[in-house]
Amino acid sequence: MSKEKIEMKTNGTYTFTSNAAWHWKEQFRREPRMAAAVIALSIIAVGLPLLNARLPKQVLCGLEEHIELKQLVQQVGILILILAMGNMIKSALDAYIKRMQGPFEDDFNLRMLKKRLYVDYNVLESKKFNDDAHAVFDSLYRNNSVLRDGSMIWQRFLTATAGLVLYSAILIRQSIVAVLLVWVPALLILGLKERAAAFDRQLRPKADKASRKMKYVEECACDLTGGKDIRMYDLTGWLTAIFHREQATADGYVKHWENGYFAVNICDAAFCFIRDFGIYLYFIWKIINGNMAVSDFVWYTAVAASCQEACSALLDSREKLGRLSFDYSRLRQFLYSWEKSAFRGTISEKDNSINEKSETKDKAAHKLAGDAVEIRLEHVGFTYPGSTKPTIKDINVTLRQGERIALVGLNGAGKSTLVKLLCGLYRPTQGTIFINGRPQEEYSKEEYFSLLAVVFQDVKLLPMTIAQNVASDVGTHIDRERVRECLTLSGLWQKVSSLPQKEDTPLGASILDDGIALSGGENQKLWMARALYKNAPMLLLDEPTAALDPLAEQQIYQKYMEMVEGRTSVFISHRLASTRFCDRILLLENGTIIEQGTHDELICLNGRYAQLFEIQGKYYRVNKDGVEEVCA
Ligand SMILES: Nc1ncnc2c1ncn2[C@@H]1O[C@H](COP(=O)(O)OP(=O)(O)OP(=O)(O)O)[C@@H](O)[C@H]1O
Fold this sequence. Notes:
ABC transporter transmembrane region fold; Rossmann fold; 2 domains; 6-stranded mixed β-sheet; 4-stranded antiparallel β-sheet; about 65% helix; binds adenosine-5'-triphosphate; transmembrane; ABC_transporter-like_ATP-bd; ATP binding
């Protein structure tokens, strides 16, 4: 069990002390001098008010004792000089601590990003993960950045604590009553603040839920795919209403807990009045009774004022530290949970080093490439999280080395789910998938993904050049010859070669100034080229021709043998005649393989496949090249 897990309380949060220790450990790791700077600043911040208070006392004492003017000026001058130097050092330390918070925050932002980039795909899809990620971001950046302010809050807390102890020790020499006048209300307010904070912690997850929905609507507003439907089907009013409703809900919760803090602050102000007035009355009473010199009155009232200030600062920083601790708990839970990968090994930070170079990638990608793989599914089943019915049920099949498999079936039969299982993006909830006789979970993520080249139904091209997209690499090791070859095979080279920058043309018109946009079919050809470039022993194509025009589709079918040569391939298609060139067809229905064999065998069987083929045959005919075309 990791140390982090041990520190976590059973209710899934961390203690205040644990969060404090974690903060300073993380700070120390990045900037070892930070703790020293915070302590130095605290000492100076405690000392300066005392020097300030000492100054008028020194003058009054000098006047009372009739010391020489020169000596008095000297004493006052030294004190003012020390004060000025102290203030200078204080400002410098303050600036240093603030400056060092930027990199501290940046580092966590990077860790959060990596966390989302590196978790297993099924985790990324899960609602819980997305809710947690949102809650952390919302927590950390609700007002100012918690991470940016953390050390400053700790410094204020330290200064206030040390100040309160020191000023109380000075005051107690004069009177315990004055100390009690400061401490008793402070303890009462502390108790009230703790209650307000508990109320805040209780309501915050509810507010997070509402703000998560608002975030979703915001994302919808920027989403180009959904943007079309939102406009055409006039869904703007519906989205705005959701946003408005959730905003009101979230604001309602925030108002509730802020009201709690407000009530405590009112009590605090009332106690402040009683405390200040009480102390002054008490000291005036002492002077009247001849128990206090005027210089002492000046000195002790100043110390009492500093004591009160320290007390208020302590209560305020304690409240902020409470909130900080709550936010840290969420951050730590998020950073250290979801660690376990379905692949061999865990998702640790050392795996997440920033790597833009291509060498490691090239080595990993081609280490296992070469021989085609054999894939064996033994009693494989899969149920989506939160679903009661399995989508894939007890599949037993072996895809032999170099075999060309066609996976067919009606909408919702489970074809894409099965592809995701083969890809390792989902893990079977029942049974095992063996690759070359080795269970899936024995592979590391790197090893496993290097075995596969996939074209999914929905693909996002990244704002890089065409060549970089094909090679999935931004390094300098791109094999340009192969990029062109793959673009030719997938039928996109003609278009690319007509562009002024050819394969160096950047994609992403919405992000890059000189980026271009491709049509749906052109994108699909590019995804195909990318899968071919990877040269992996297994090729998975989930409806790779769905967006292609008949000519492009025909071209892909004609080149299919060339493309998949030496690899095991799975090809999903709704055009049944297009699966003729495959060695075996698997017909999936309700998550199980109900028929399998070659096209001719299945037609002879006269079962479900033959029935579907006949229905399609009414609308398509097969041309002389063996390719389907729509009947006129
Ligand atoms: N992320 C998900 N969470 C829960 N259920 C899902 C999810 N994705 C798909 N499903 C369910 O699994 C079933 C199979 O979906 P899948 O996408 O695998 O079908 P398919 O055969 O590829 O369909 P199509 O031919 O329409 O692409 C669907 O009926 C759907 O309800």
